[in-house]
């Protein structure tokens, strides 16, 4: 039986790039056990270039690198089957800000907001799971 320390167990499900692995489709689709345990490679896919970069520099997370943020964390719209990739930068910054243990306590809620959340009215509003008011965008009558 293999025993992990608390930080090793936490890191197992938080990839070096910031992805919360438990929400990645690869966990179900390919039986992935997390980027770190798989050494950056799922099945016969190429080894993740971000994983190679981080580990070659001796870091456990991208945010510890002097080049952070870099092009490897660039979000991409046309990669929808791997939607967690667009959360890398936000997650990395939150891990840096809160620490992995604190981030781990809220990341499931935050990833639910990422997948299902919406803005109620304006761009700067917090994400919510509430429904939008259907009257919000109707043209209002102006007073004369």
In short:
With 144 residues, the protein is mainly alpha-helical.
| Cα separation of the termini | 77 Å
What is the share of helical residues? 25-40%
Whole-number average pLDDT? 79
String of helices and strands: HHHHHEE
Number of strands: 2
Strand content: under 5%
Largest beta sheet: what is the strand line-up?
1-2
Number of domains: 1
Net shape: elongated
Low-confidence stretches: none
Q: What's the helix count?
A: 5
Note the main sheet.
Answer: 2 strands, antiparallel
Broad structural category = mainly alpha
Radius of gyration: 18 Å
Keywords, separated by commas or semicolons:
two-stranded antiparallel ribbon, 144 residues, single chain, 2 strands
């Amino acid at each position: 039986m293999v025993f992990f320390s608390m930080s090793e167990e936490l890191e197992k499900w938080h990839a070096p790039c910031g992805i919360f692995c438990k929400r990645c489709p690869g966990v179900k689709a390919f039986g992935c056990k997390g980027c770190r345990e798989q050494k950056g490679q799922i099945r016969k896919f190429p080894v993740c270039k971000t994983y190679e970069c981080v580990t070659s520099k001796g870091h456990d997370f991208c945010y510890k690198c002097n080049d952070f943020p870099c092009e490897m964390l660039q979000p991409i719209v046309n990669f929808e089957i791997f939607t967690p990739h667009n959360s890398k930068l936000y997650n990395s910054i939150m891990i840096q800000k809160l620490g992995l243990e604190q981030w781990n306590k809220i990341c499931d809620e935050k990833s639910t907001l990422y997948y299902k959340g919406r803005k109620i009215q304006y761009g700067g509003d917090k994400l919510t799971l509430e429904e939008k008011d259907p009257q919000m965008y109707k043209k209002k009558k102006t007073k004369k």
